[in-house]
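Bit of a strange request maybe. I'm writing a small parser for C-alpha cell strings and I need a real example to test against, not something I typed by hand. Could someone generate the C-alpha cells for this chain?
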Amino acid sequence: MTLIQRFGSALNLNIHFHMLFLEGAISENTLGGTSFTRIKAPSHNDMVELVHTISYRIAQYLEKVGLVERDMENSYLNMPIDDEDSLLQLQGASVSYRIAIGPQQGKKVFTLQTLPASTEGEYGQLANISGFSLHAGVFANADEPEKLERLCRYISRPAISEKRLSMTQHGKVRYELKTPYRDGTTHIFFEPIDFIGKLAALLPPPRLNLTRFFGVFAPNSNLRAQVTASQRGKNSPRLINEGNEQSNKAYHARGMSWAQRLKRVFNIDINECEKCQQHNVGVIACIIDSVVIQKILAHLDKACPTSEPVMQLPPLRASPDEQHDAFIVQRDFNFGA
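Reply from user aminoacidic:
Good idea to test on real output. This should exercise your parser:
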C-alpha cells in the first residue's frame, strides 16, 4: 500500500511516498491456497544501491518528458514559472522554503532554532544520495497490531496539526515542527497571506488518487480476497456463501454508517449518553434530506425557543470623531486577541 504525501513537517511542498510492505511475498500454491515466503531485511549497502537506482530512473524520466534540461555541468528545471493561471510559483516557493506572497516575497521563511545542531550520520536501513532519501527501518511484527495501527495512522496523517499551530502576539502564524531539524530548528513563522499560499501549494491535482494498492492487495488481484480480513475482491468466499457462482465478480463489503465514520474520524460516539456516560443510546432514524432537516429545525425553534434572545448587530454608521459631553468615544477596543 502506497500513500502519496505532498507536505513536509514545515508545511513545505515535499512529495514523498509512504509504502507499507509485507516482509515477504504471497503466491498461490498447487492446493488452491496461498503461501508466504519471508525475505530478510535489506542492508545499508542494499539501500544505497536501491536509492541510486531510483534517483537515476526518476531523473531519466523527467528528462524524457521535458521537465528537466541537462547540460555538461548541471541540470535545471524547464517549467513555465511565469504562468499566472497555475500554482507553480507557490509550489516553487514552498519547495525552496521561501516566502511566495507579500512584501517579503523571495526571502527565506523565518525559522527559530532552539536546539543545538545534530551530527548523526546514516546507519541501518537508511540511505541518502543527491537529495533522494530512502528509509526502511520501521517495522511491526505479526503480534503487534497496535504498533501497526500507529504506523498506518502516521503514514495517513493530514498535512497540518492544529495542536502545533498558533498565532503570535504580532499576528504571525507559528508552527511547531514535530521533529526538530538537524540544524536545531523547532518553529517556523509565516505571514497570514503567505500561510494561505503554503496551504494552496499543498493541494493535489484534481482526480489524483493519493492512496494506491499493489500486488496481492490491488483491487483486481485474484488473491486479495484470500489475504484480507474483509475478503473483498475476486473469488471471495462470501460470494459462495451467498449462493453466487460468478467467481470473476468482486465482492464489496458494506461501508461504514455515518455514525461509525463520525466516531472514527472525529472520535464522537453518538451511542454514548452525555449524562450517564453509558452506551445506551440508539439511532431511531437517519435523516439526510436537507429540506426535511430545515423543517425539523424550524419547528424546534418555534416549539422550544431559546431563553436568551439572539443579539442582533447594530446598523452600520460612521464613527464619531468628536468628544461628546456625556461620553468619551473609545476606539482601542480589545476583542480578546
